[in-house]
Amino acid sequence: MAVPNKMFIMLPVMFLARKLDGEDPNIVFLLRVVYGVVQVICGIVVIYTYYKATQVKSMQMIYVPPPAMPFGVDADAKKKYTQVPFATHVLSQARSMLGSTAFGIVMTVGLHLYKGMIVSLAIQSIMGPFGLFDSALVKAVFTSQHGLTPEAKLFDEKTLVELTDNDEVIDQQGNVVPMTRTAVKKAHAKDKVEESKAKQKTVEELMLDTWDAGVNADLAALMAELDRKNCNTQTKEDRWTPLMVLAGLGATGAPMAIRQLRKLGADTSIVDVEGWTALHWAAFHGQTETARELANETKLLAVKDKEGNTPIDMARKEGNEKVAEIYEKALGENKKSK
Fold it and tell me: With a threshold of 0.85, does the pTM exceed it?
């Protein structure tokens, strides 16, 4: 959201504010109400932004340029960038904004109460929101798709690999930090590794993504991450396993994926929070192909969920007769073999 140049607004506001009659109690009351409402809203925005800043965990090192100089700088001079962890700088800027907002309110209210000044009330009622939404942090929290992340480039900062020979790096105390090309190359390699790690999803995330994709799910990403150690991973909230997800999916390749999982050691007897096994999942969702893959687990056909339903009961309850028949046939064949 573009914020108009504040000077084009502030000058006419100052001119008009001086025209207000400070002796008129109705005008004074109206200004107090407007100022109070505006500052409450601004205060909420600032406090929420500060809260979001406290949640930032990224300690990626960034290199922040100095504030713009009103009269320019020597063209031949090196530009100084302050080296600081991203989360540290965000929190510092948020604290500064919180402090300046509180100070501004105290000063404006103080001048009004003790000196009877209404001009400051009028000016701050209009300029306060403009100044606030000119803040990089506020825009990041409320309008940026990246939010409070290094990718948002909130402070026109550079990463280590973006620094040039014309840039000078200093620490937060103002001491020069020597930078070498070797350090830059190492940083670049480290950034690549961190980026790769960030893109890697957990098994739980892959399971949920696979389930959300439904019949269009590409099972390759999930199967590539599963091995003997994590093939029985359960989601934190509902205690789903990869086997359950595959059993309930109608996606192409689900039966083959179930065979691969069972070879890895996937446990078909695990239940979720509802007491469902993978056989219940296939029964509920009417997946005949995955039901065939699991039907030889005949002992599990007697397992009841929290509502007392076996997989066969559930299939019938949901109108999935073909699945019920597959399970019953497996039971019959099991009895014959005995």
Answer: no
